Amino acid sequence: MRSPSLTVHAPAKINLALHVTGRRADGYHLIETLAVFSQLGDVVELAPAAVDTFAIAGPFAAALPDDDDNLIIRARDRLRRAFTQVRDRHSAIRLTKNLPVAAGIGGGSSDAAAVLRGLAALWEIDVDEAGLARLGAELGADLPMCLAGRPLIARGIGEKIAPLVDWPALPLLLVNPGVAVPTQTVFTGLERRDNAPLPALPPQRDAQSVLDWLRQCRNDLQAAALGLAPEIMEALDRLSASGARLARMSGSGATCFGLYDTIEAARRAEATIKQERPGWFAAAGATRGSNA
Description:
alpha+beta; 2 domains; Alpha-Beta Plaits
């Protein structure tokens, strides 16, 4: 008997630190990143269907294609090709797009990861997390991270993943000044690609120790992104002025995050920034800890 319809959360991926450490002969950049996942995210609804359908709703729906260029469609088709027993299965997929597009928070990859996980369950495919990660890596370097969906260190081009133990949940505010920054253009603008790796992780994993450790880290893409979108600096300045203990850009931008002592402080900062910049995306939440 086939599984009923289901809903899968597609959380925002936040790169708390991202160091670019080299470049492969094929042009792919080597990175070391500490990534976490937020309570904030998109929503993917899946149901059995006689024919494939795909619909997009939500505040950022208009920014996405609903055809074969969408990573969700590519993930669905790749899963079906990989498992012959489901090649005659079809699905109705509905995406509620709550996160800005081309924003450095892994929205498209997280959506595709949700589809891989969800359809594997809906179609009752016997595949483990490693198997899905191998499929995901064929679609994009962020997919294995988004399939893991928990605090982690990723190395290589993002496919070498080490989950973190006892990493705390962190109150944060995400802010995007309403500009899209193409990832490839940001990487092209790097001044150097042989930066130092992440420092050794802190032995203590309480929020203060984590914050002290993060201050030793960087986002090596931030300077290049600022050259393309100066609005990022205003976002960082407003986060700092709102009381963030640390403000940094996530991924290739333009989304920035601020870390706060409490979720209440993050929500107050959200209200302030929304009032000052009503056209910006601003959303407070918390990251998922290792034990969530």
